Amino acid sequence: MTETERHEYDVLVIGAGGAGLRAAIAARERGLRTAIVCKSLFGKAHTVMAEGGCAAAMGNVNDNDSWQVHFRDTMRGGKFLNSWRMAELHAKEAPDRVWELETWGALFDRTPDGRISQRNFGGHTYPRLAHVGDRTGLEIIRTMQQRIVALQQADHTETGDYEARLRVFAECTVTELLTDDDGAVAGAFGYWRESGRFIEFSAPAVVLATGGIGKSFQVTSNSWEYTGDGHALALRAGANLIDMEFVQFHPTGMVWPPSVKGILVTEGVRGDGGVLKNADGDRFMFGYVPDVFKGQYAQTEDEADRWYEDQENNRRTPDLLPRDEVARAINTEVKEGRGSPHGGVYLDIASRMPADEIRRRLPSMYHQFKELADVDITAEPMEVGPTCHYVMGGIDVDPDTGQSRVPGLFATGECAGGMHGSNRLGGNSLSDLLVFGRRAGLGAADYVAGVRRRPAARREAVEAAAEMTLAPFAPAAHGAGENPYTLHAELQRMMNDLVGIIRTESEMTEALDRLGALRERVRDVAVEGHRQYNPGWHLALDLRNMLMVGEAVASSARTRTESRGGHTRADHPGLDPEWRRRALLTARDRDGRDDVVVPRVAVEQAERAPMREDLLALFDLTELEKYYTAAELTAHPQGGT
Ligand code: FAD
């Protein structure tokens, strides 16, 4: 086998976004030797791109806010499919995690009386998002990197070595998890992006924090790292994925010019007063308030506008309905011929706020449109449309510890599932990373403390991982040789067209057939050149992951015959309470159909755990009746029958 560099740690964290960094800090604070591996530069992750803010019920702007209101909003946003335990922990712990960041040096925007300011966002009853202008993620990552440096300095003082307990391996891609003879995690295998040299980590606990899957779709706000690696690594190691049919299309991505199509326009624009209009100049969202939200949103423009100033006596604007509702509404407006010239709708902040104020509150948006589209958002409206943004589905984990069903394998952040149900509320990801990143780090530390014998990776698995990684360099053995960029473009187009915002059974079946054909072609993927910084090779390896994830999404979407949150079936347009109780679990299919290059997956139904009674009691029975079966509601104190 080719030469491989080897390292031993107690906890290996794969991913250096908010979730990975918070997990690594927690494990290191327990005194464990912790490695952080990331395929991008250290500091370049999706968390850095987060604009709008971090949701936490601190009640600084409206003291009616509380963890109970945040919990209710999160469950409503997810249409009651969320892991209620995760939603509970998240709502209760998010404020402490935000405060903690300030103790580590973060500086959030302030209210006039000096408290952390909070802004409105879709689906949140009260202003709740702690923010730093529209560059919140940058401040969060900067702060956690600073915390990591502080911990390394403490280690240096004690041991003379900055990296004694915490080391970062940047631009290093993990291609396979390693397990021992009993199926427990034993480490990971990967390569340095710059040199192409192999690297093997030995660790009894691995935390996956690799983010999302957006690069499987053509129009996306996500950048090149989001190829679903963690999802696929977990599947191949024996973990389950949950809720993979739920993919969030953010309603407002840029639609023009084509080179920047999909880049995000933060929901903060609407939170701060921006409104959506169609080509006729109508504020069309008033026509799209679904029955389940009737009574909670303003019915007239006057009331909606008054709400920005007086939230006690007015209802919120429907421009701030949860993202799935707004994305579907925009889709309909465009389809019915009321779209903007480039196939979107208009987002107008220019007519609603002085230019200086727009530049102060939304500096990144101002520059983004000026530089990329030559549009001055202080003078004219933006053209926007839906873009693939976030995956609610992910690795199925224990809510309290983040452990998957594979011993020693943990997951957190966007690559973990459950927390957001069928649709994530804006701002709930950054808080999710902080709450569950910490919990996964602690979960991994507790697990390591209980391990009696360090697991040893199966040597044949390490050799197979190396062989698989080198396969694209040996096209002769693989037939004609497929170009990874061509395959990727075909996959993205197909996922966008068939597995996008609106789905049907026949489209899902066609998608699965097309994925089957791509699976065959990916065996023949061939790259030129050598292992030193070779992006074509990197993409060829990522394709395996994207195909597995694509199959998980399409199979789950075909199985769920209802519409809910980020999964809309034109052939099954309504919510079905029977489906609320059911989760779809995706696992590696070991039933005689296995394929070593892109292992096949199988989707199974499972019952969701019933919500604890004290949490159920936080909702009015009449509201729950829109989602639950009568039998489930007998546990409600208002006495469902
Ligand atoms: P990331 O921050 O993406 O980190 C993933 C890490 O995994 C990276 O370091 C990557 O290099 C690494 N990685 C991946 N695969 C491998 C591999 N095979 N080997 C090694 N390393 C690997 N959410 C909010 O709550 N509020 C917002 O305002 C907000 N705004 C957003 C704006 C944009 C433009 C985008 C794209 C998202 C936004 N989100 C927002 C969502 C939120 O930013 C993400 O969901 C969140 O940052 C994901 O964090 P993470 O730690 O799970 O993953």
TrEMBL record:
MF GO annotations: steroid dehydrogenase activity, acting on the CH-CH group of donors
Domain FAD-dependent oxidoreductase 2 FAD-binding: 10-430
UniProt xrefs under InterPro entries: FAD-dep_OxRdtase_2_FAD-bd, FAD/NAD-bd_sf, Fum_R/Succ_DH_flav-like_C_sf, Fum_Rdtase/Succ_DH_flav-like_C, SdhA/FrdA/AprA, Succ_DH/fumarate_Rdtase_cat_sf
Cofactor: FAD
Record: active site: R323 (proton acceptor)
Organism: Myceligenerans xiligouense
UniProt domain Fumarate reductase/succinate dehydrogenase flavoprotein-like C-terminal: residue ranges: 488-606
A Pfam match: Succ_DH_flav_C
Keyword annotations: FAD, Flavoprotein, Oxidoreductase
Name of protein: Succinate dehydrogenase subunit A
